Amino acid sequence: MRDVVLKLSVLLCFGLALHGAQAQTLGLASDLSNESQAGKALVVSREGQCTLCHRIPDHAGAMGDLGPSLGGVATRLSAQAIEARVKDSRSVNPHTIMPPYFSTVGLSHVDPKFKDQTLLTQAQLQQILAYLATLK
Q1: CATH of segment(s) 32-132
Q2: What is the pLDDT of residue 7?
Q3: 130 near 84, Cβ under 8 Å?
């Protein structure tokens, strides 16, 4: 019995070490900087609302598929292209349904208490961009 416990312990330790190595290779959340972690939290939050239309890697909650998956976005698009889409996707596609997260230009029917306010702050924008840059 003792040998079985010892063997299971060795296998468990080996498995945990392997899992940790795989997590590093895949660039999972444990490897994200604080800014990137804050960005991921925003992306999957109700405040960010990204999951309404996009699939988010390593997120287990409900997600939509109206927009493209964000998996691999940093491989498909440059940092500038990602930033342009997050700030105001209308600059890329005038008919987009993606809200302008960092623009107030051309908006109508805005509640007066939110007039001239962007959906994201500068800090939130940078956090989201830092997270999206990790999705390769």
Answers
A1: 1.10.760.10
A2: 42
A3: no
